[in-house]
């Protein structure tokens, strides 16, 4: 497409993004190649995984069969998938949502049922069937103690029945049903008249709604039976999509985009709010474009936010972020430039963006004097220049996982669900030993201090290179390549941090029991006392310990827990004799022993083992590390189990 070496030479004289973009758009080969690639993506969008009437119909039929057998949880999933695949002009979309509301009704998820009834009506559910939805809504409001709203829903149902062309006998049946619901509503205690204790409002809601077969449990789990272990609980395969607008969970009742299958919303408010920008983004989603361009999708999303925002102050905060154009490797800049060119052509050829938006009014007029800066400059065929910036934060959520069915330990992991820009957070400089921690509620960034910060002391954020998790060489290389600076924070400059990571891979010093580098039977200098020592036969002993560890894993698989404990205790004894007390392998061994005790129901023994593991993890990751939080969470779970067991023993 473009001779890289030739452009590399030209870039040495370029001072700003607009020079690169002008050069790329003046090259006909670049423009033609990008246009052909976009055309190919556009042509492929109808094949494979897009909206599909037949697939939607098939999933709806599956849901109907599951509903008839009273498998409401399975039918809920099928109806949701049917709605996701239903084209905007298909009757399957409102019908699938209406059917889902029926499943929710029988699962006693009254609020979610009402939400789906309203959505089905907004999606133009057939008029001659709407009385069913209003009656369902009235029953839900009755269950919630909302007498006035229930009465209004009954009135709407009555109006629909009167207007519908249906046999008189059918109307009489429906009126009889209405009378029964009216009687129930009249006997309902109105929420407005209730004086609660406040207990119900403080009770947490369960994920995916309440399970109809398991009181107070989530609909995302089921009770199973096996002859070897009796009754037990399994997680169901549930849909858990993230709202495209607010980044909160949609649960298993997402509101689908009517144009693409990848985008869902948590409710109609987000659906309506996103319509202001997703109309330009939706074609790219149908073309599977965003998965191929990474953070450039964020850049485009920021453009959309910039043109629709009325907050010029926030708009200009984004523009103040540095671009590092002259610091980035030429090959990377060229790649970004071609991606930017592609996005400009996408907006021009695949959307109505330039027809919908007056760029002078919606974009240029918002720039304050001398504040422009950006990573991307897009020059359209109409010579309109659009500046986009990508300086992103990863939005994450905590997921809970277990290793297998027998493992009663819950492990938490952070999963990235989105990337966003936070100009205020970007004001905080980096340190490999930060004094703040980021967390998220939806797309809202929460910044908390994790250390005492003195007056006048700088607030430091970490750009993903924490000294407790990455060596100095790795940190320096990543920060230089990605953020274009050489870090001079304390962990990168102070001698006491020099060998921090190596401490947790060290042998035990025979002089002070401190960390001795593993030089494979060669003399090494202790990190703490400076003594020169050699640990003979360490590899052989540690190999023996690893063999015992593997034998323990096999024993656990075969449910031979006593055998596993024998091997693990032998493994631990060797490792404690040879390794530094905070070595990673010692923590792993203690953790495994604790798990085996859990499988045996020996809660107090498990607690003692986990306390040893906690000490190692705190030394490694610090008192504010997420790893320590996860371990403490496991420890408290075990304490609860122990107390429950003691209670039952006493009674």
From TrEMBL:
Domain SET: 361-464
Gene3D superfamilies: SET domain, Tetratricopeptide repeat domain
Family matches, as Pfam families: SET, TPR_12
Annotated GO CC locations: cytoplasm; nucleus
Catalysed conversion reaction: L-lysyl-[protein] + S-adenosyl-L-methionine = N(6)-methyl-L-lysyl-[protein] + S-adenosyl-L-homocysteine + H(+)
Subcellular location: Cytoplasm; Nucleus
GO molecular function: histone deacetylase binding; N-methyltransferase activity; protein methyltransferase activity; S-adenosylmethionine-dependent methyltransferase activity
SUPFAM superfamilies: SET domain, TPR-like
Keyword field: Cytoplasm, Methyltransferase, Nucleus, S-adenosyl-L-methionine, Transferase
Region (Disordered): 189-208
One GO term (biological process): methylation
Cited InterPro entries: SET-MYND_domain_protein, SET_dom, SET_dom_sf, SMYD4_SET, TPR-like_helical_dom_sf, TPR_rpt
Chief location of this protein within or outside the cell: cytoplasm
Protein name: SET and MYND domain-containing protein
